What does this fold into?
Amino acid sequence: MEKRYGLPVAIAMVVGTVIGSGVFFKAETVLNKTGGNMMLGIAAWLIVGLVMIICSYAFGIVAGHYDGAEGLVGFARASCGGTYSYYVGWFMTTVYYPSLTAVLCWLPARYFGVLVGWDDPTSGPVMALSVGFLAVTYAMNALAPKLAGKFQLSTTVIKLVPLALMAVVGTVAGLTNGQINYNFANVVNPEIAPSAGLFAAVVALSFAYEGWICATAIGTELKDSKRNLPKALILGAFVVVVVYVLYYIGLSGAIDSATMMQGGQAGAKMAFQNIFGQVGGVAIFVFVVVSCWGTCNGLMMGVTRGMYDLATEDNEKLAMFRSVDRYTQMPTNSSVFGLLVTGLWLVYFYGANLTSGWFGPFNFDSSELPIITLYAMYIPIFIVLMKQKELSGFKRTVVPIMAILCCLFMVFATIYAYRMKVVFYLIVFAVIMAIGALLKGKKKA
It folds into this structure.
């Protein structure tokens, strides 16, 4: 493909795909997980940011080594073969993309509910609006993909507005009125053990830092990709970490931790209103709603194309997903499949995370555990990278070893934080992967 993109575009793609909704959604979660311990919270933001930087740099090396491969599935195919790449693609199509998209259909609905006074995050209006966001976002991607692309570009700019304003103005105000010093000096719930709080916060923040792997998809279109893609991944990751930490500090200057923890998603609105006034806070919070919707749109792009990507392998069992509409140039059957699976995950998210729990021991956080599974799937790719003798010693040994350790740390943090819930999640994961095995079939000779 044409080498059309330079380093600035690649950096912008990393920043744009990562920053969006998780920073708003998980800031309050981090406070609750750590008991309002600000230093512990910042440590969690920095640790997951470091994991992102190391793993993204490792994938930059992978992208440069396997010239022509695009995205995670392409790297899995080039390094570990077609069978492994199929299962990675099946997981992303049936679990990763749709489960996160379901959460991201609820988030803009929830934040809109905060704007208009719907206090209950599980109320009928909020859930109906969640379905509305799902339907509209699907229609935009399946029927007007060019419009979806323009919408994604515009929301990338919009999403930085509330973060930058809170980071700067909130920090200045908090230092002036002493709110930051108060929040850092006072732990709301000191009974939470630091180790338990830190690991729980790390797992929660995996959602906020996710999305950087999508930037590797433009590797074949990037000028001098062997040099520029690793640079873009590292520089983009640094930008994300700095923005996140400064926003978190600015937030502490706008509202006391106890109020933020009790307020849930409404706490962010209160913080903006404390700094920018009633009208200004509401106006800026509208940007938060649009930002979350933009992230939902970005993931919907993956949802609609998932089965089509799997069906391009010569598999007759998935042949129906190869069809492309001649008017929209979109894979219609793949899009419908993605919509249905996302709808099921939205029902699961409501039943498992927003109610007392419909699924008994099989209730787990669908905004976090699928992401950690992906970190485990990175490990074989990094192991194969260590066997590439044509790479320099640093790129062949140091970087992949550090990346593997980062992935293992994320997996350990998840097991430490969730205990038995991980087992029940893995049962669900195994069932879904077994269905994928039945549909894999054999390639035609």
Notes: The domain at 7-440 is CATH 1.20.1740.10 (Amino acid/polyamine transporter I). The chain is about 75% helix and 0% strand. Residues 314 and 444 are 6 Å apart (CA to CA).
